[in-house]
Amino acid sequence: MRLAARTLLVALSAALLLAAQPPFDAQVAEKRQTDALFVAALGREMLVRKVAYAGADDLTIPAYLFAPRDTTHPRPTIVFVHGGVHGDFNAVHLEQVRALVRRGWVVIAPEYRGSTGYGPRFYAAIDYGGREVDDVVLARDWLARFAPWADLDRAVIMGYSHGGYIALLAVLRHPGLFRAAVAHVPVADLPTRMRTHPDWYQAIFAAQPAYGATLAANPRPYVERSPSAHARELATPVLSHVADNDEDVLIAENHILRDSMVAAGKVRSGLYRYREFHAPPGGHSFGVLLETPAGRESWTETMRFLERYLGEGER
């Protein structure tokens, strides 16, 4: 009876979510402002373009492209994945993009299915841990065709939170496509996440066709789409920074992932590098707060890790 009651509660929550439609027109307008902001802030020092390519099915995937103006020779490439359930790539990463491109690297930031700012159909197409990962990986195909100066033999994938989760799944499912991955404060274990988040959050997953129900009613997709369940498959170097005061991705998730990596021998081999920051300002967002000591330290270590696999590049 308890299981049936909880399933009904989550189903009702899902119905309420569908009934309370987001303000799509306002989201589209805000996304246009973000597009203009990137051009205004970065356009004088680098190439800034909004591009689009075919995703995992018939959906068109927008993406931001940032690159040095000199495209006469191949340059290392970073696929930078935004976070958030129904999030988008926005100005919170502006200074990071600037630092990466100043190193001489190309950055592409896909707005995978479910992202905010592209209307109701795109928003409703969310497929957490599924086709969204394919959407991100397929950015490589666009680069190969239209940006031949993006060196895909020297490519890494990076992201924070949901973006870190996608980065992990990308290298777990596609070993060999990327030289390395950065997964900071990543979603790491969906069963734990469901148990530590409210019913309305669980309803976002239960309403997606790939999940079809709550964790209690249908646990298989939650396990299969958890990086923690696939530690033995890791063959690509990963750097992960987490915060023990994270109130979004609770530290328990990344402890499970870390312990799985230890058991699989990935820490001992050096494939999985894990660092836990104690009570950094910003908690879940500490890694993008470059004005704080913890944020600067995390970013400095991240840049060194990237340089190890990409080369320092031409400044």
From TrEMBL:
Domain Peptidase S9 prolyl oligopeptidase catalytic, chain residue ranges per copy: 99-310
Organism name: Gemmatirosa kalamazoonensis
MF (Gene Ontology): serine-type endopeptidase activity
PANTHER family reported in the protein's UniProt record: DIPEPTIDYL PEPTIDASE FAMILY MEMBER 6 (PTHR42776:SF27), SERINE PEPTIDASE S9 FAMILY MEMBER (PTHR42776)
InterPro entries: AB_hydrolase_fold (IPR029058), Peptidase_S9_cat (IPR001375)
Keyword annotations of the record: Hydrolase, Signal
One biological process term in Gene Ontology: proteolysis
Pfam annotation, one family: Peptidase_S9
Protein name: Peptidase S9 prolyl oligopeptidase active site domain protein
Signal peptide: 1-19
